[in-house]
Amino acid sequence: MANKTNLTNLSVPAKLTNGGVAGLVGVTCVFPIDLAKTRLQNQHGKMDRCLVKTAHTDSFCGMYRGAAVNLTLVTPEKAIKLAANDFFREQLLQDGPSP
């Protein structure tokens, strides 16, 4: 139960920061796969070959070309979403008046 108490005592800026970091990590992990999926929509082939070809052709950094827009937009969205989710969960779990 001590872990639950620590999570509920986090300030709103800390919750927003945690949500933003979660968004950054999520986009960073998924962006190369999404890039390959988008490229495969225009051609036929396998996902793994597309990822390898992109890595060889564009280098590792090329796998993240265009990610800045996603990072810029997803970070505040996830921060607000996760902080609001935590807020509403706390509100709904509070004991209400007895019937």
Automatic annotation (TrEMBL):
<dbReference type="InterPro" id="IPR002067">
    <property type="entry name" value="MCP"/>
</dbReference>
<keyword id="KW-0496">Mitochondrion</keyword>
<feature type="repeat" description="Solcar">
    <location>
        <begin position="10"/>
        <end position="91"/>
    </location>
</feature>
<dbReference type="InterPro" id="IPR051028">
    <property type="entry name" value="Mito_Solute_Carrier"/>
</dbReference>
<keyword id="KW-0813">Transport</keyword>
<dbReference type="GO" id="GO:0005743">
    <property type="term" value="C:mitochondrial inner membrane"/>
</dbReference>
<keyword id="KW-0812">Transmembrane</keyword>
<dbReference type="GO" id="GO:0043490">
    <property type="term" value="P:malate-aspartate shuttle"/>
</dbReference>
<keyword id="KW-1133">Transmembrane helix</keyword>
<dbReference type="GO" id="GO:0005313">
    <property type="term" value="F:L-glutamate transmembrane transporter activity"/>
</dbReference>
<keyword id="KW-0677">Repeat</keyword>
<comment type="similarity">
    <text>Belongs to the mitochondrial carrier (TC 2.A.29) family.</text>
</comment>
<dbReference type="InterPro" id="IPR018108">
    <property type="entry name" value="MCP_transmembrane"/>
</dbReference>
<dbReference type="InterPro" id="IPR023395">
    <property type="entry name" value="MCP_dom_sf"/>
</dbReference>
<dbReference type="GO" id="GO:0015183">
    <property type="term" value="F:L-aspartate transmembrane transporter activity"/>
</dbReference>
<keyword id="KW-0999">Mitochondrion inner membrane</keyword>
<dbReference type="Pfam" id="PF00153">
    <property type="entry name" value="Mito_carr"/>
</dbReference>
<keyword id="KW-0472">Membrane</keyword>
<protein>
    <submittedName>
        <fullName>Solute carrier family 25 member 18</fullName>
    </submittedName>
</protein>
